[in-house]
Write a structure and sequence with these properties.
Oligomer: single chain
Mean pLDDT: 89
CATH architecture of the largest domain: 6 Propeller
Distance between the termini: 40 Å
Number of domains: 2
Strand content: 35-45%
CATH superfamily of the largest domain: TolB, C-terminal domain
CATH topology of the largest domain: Neuraminidase
Radius of gyration: 24 Å
């Protein structure tokens, strides 16, 4: 077998594992397997299921994009988002034992996220709407009775959408986040009855505050979420406030609680409903300042900062016994899972894996007994899936070895140096994949920040670095300020 350096074309051979979630009883693990489709220049996403016996099987059709699996509280069904209907991401349900997935509800503007209520009777959905979308939602709907009428209506909608952004008129700053244009859209929350379906769908937010990150109260009677706290400013990235939405009346009661000290980003109730925690930033600090974990009793107003040892906070979850929070802690080019108590009681013991130098855990899920399913990248592989238990750690993505069998992966060389201001800075160097006589070009990669952390296990950059080395260049990257 001929071993070759990595190249840019290899982007189509590297699969990813995403969004692991345990069933409520811990007997099964659902996750998303993302496979590049070179012919369509896109990525297919399929749900997979791993049983207690370790058997893994494909669980959804995977004809388009199936993502964001969420178990029903009784563990009998899995909700997920899919664009298989051709009209954007919609919410589907599938039985745990398999079979055909059924459409529960779709929204013309698509669904970006959803959460089951604790009693399993309702689901809250997130969708982004512009003022024009809201007006169209309120307008009388034409009754389309034939396939031709529906096809013509879809064509008119597609043409109108094309004309709206040709040219695209920018009226606010910022106008884009990442590669997505904001286009005047703001997040709204919808609630749907699982038993009734689409006819029960109702929007429970009315103003343009950009709602998101919803979570349910333990009695399934209200929601916690975040929204823009100060409508007088156009700043899109800071000033996020906690909001409580009571659903017991025909019209939802929305209470926004701006905080002079904190911008709140993703409030989550503890399993017993006594605590509310969130990632937060101090309101008067720049957006790039370090975020922290804060907690408070549900009926109190004062947020208390948890001691996360100055690490950058990644994905986080409440521990099953309410004793604390488990979170990804980024530090010096690695990212493992740490725990922090919220009260005086000792924190629950979990099977947190030991990460190697340069390994980065991106996502994880905790089983009721402390076992952890997690996704990580490392210097030798951009994405692997594992289950860590008290008895040991098992890789559950064995097919990943196929990506590397005929490719030469260049080892990362860690370097530390002193900046002119005396700050110690961590960086990494890759030599050319094929030894060269004399000199070779150096590609210096610079990331935004300085709050972000790069690592040899950073999935989004791993192939780019290896392909650049494969093309005969030296590659160097570092973490500015040496701060993480």
């Amino acid at each position: 077998m001929t071993v070759q350096p990595w190249s840019a074309q290899d982007v189509f051979r590297i699969e990813a594992i995403e969004q692991p979630v345990w069933s409520p009883d811990g007997s099964a693990l659902c996750y998303v397997r993302a496979t590049p489709d070179e012919s369509k220049n896109s990525t297919k996403r399929v749900l997979w299921l791993r049983t207690a016996a370790g058997v893994q099987k494909r669980f959804s059709a995977g004809t388009a994009v199936d993502r964001t699996p969420r178990w029903s509280p009784d563990g009998r069904r899995i909700g997920f988002l899919s664009n298989r209907g051709g009209d954007g991401m919609a919410l589907y349900l599938i039985d745990r034992d398999g079979g055909e997935a059924e459409l529960l509800v779709s929204i013309p503007t698509g669904i970006s996220d959803f959460v089951w209520s604790p009693d399993g009777t309702q689901i809250v959905c997130v969708s982004a709407l512009s003022a024009a979308d809201i007006a169209a939602e309120a307008a009388p709907k034409a009754v389309l009775t034939t396939p031709l009428e529906r096809e013509q209506a879809a064509a008119r909608t597609a043409q109108a959408a094309k004309e709206r952004i040709d040219p695209r008129v920018i009226t606010e700053l910022p106008f884009r986040t990442g590669t997505d244009y904001i286009d005047g859209k703001r997040g709204h929350l919808y609630v749907v009855s699982v038993a009734v379906g689409a006819s029960s769908l109702r929007r429970v937010t009315t103003d343009h505050r950009d709602y998101g990150a919803p979570s349910w109260s333990t009695d399934s009677q209200s929601l916690y979420a975040v929204c823009k706290g100060d409508m007088a400013t156009t700043d899109y990235f800071i000033g996020s406030a906690l909001v409580h939405i009571a659903l017991t009346q025909p019209e939802a009661t929305v209470t926004v609680t701006p905080d002079a000290t904190w911008s709140i980003y993703d409030p989550q109730l503890s399993p017993d409903g006594k605590w509310l925690a969130s990632v937060a930033q101090r309101s008067q600090q720049p957006f790039y300042s370090a975020a922290v974990l804060v907690v408070r009793a549900v009926h109190e107003s004062h947020w208390r900062v948890l001691d996360t040892r100055d690490a950058t906070i990644g994905m986080w979850h409440w521990l099953p016994d309410n004793s604390g929070i488990a979170h990804v802690a980024e530090w010096h080019g690695s990212a493992g899972i740490a725990t922090v108590p919220v009260g005086a009681a000792p924190v629950m013991q979990i099977s947190a894996p030991t990460v190697a130098a340069g390994e980065v855990i991106e996502d994880f899920a905790i089983r009721h007994d402390g076992a952890i399913a997690y996704i990580s990248g490392s210097p030798t592989s951009p994405c692997e899936a594992w289950v860590s238990e008290a008895t040991g750690c098992e890789r559950i993505s064995p097919w990943a070895a196929d990506w590397h069998s005929d490719r030469h992966t260049v080892p990362f060389q860690e370097l530390w140096y002193t900046a002119p201001d005396g700050q110690r800075v961590q960086g990494w160097l890759l030599p050319p994949a094929t030894p060269v006589d004399g000199s070779a070009g150096l590609i210096l990669h610079i990331h935004g920040g300085p709050h972000a952390m790069w690592s040899p296990g950073t999935r989004s950059m791993w192939l780019e670095w290896q392909a650049t080395a494969g093309a005969g260049f030296y590659v160097f990257f570092c973490n500015p300020r040496g701060s993480e």
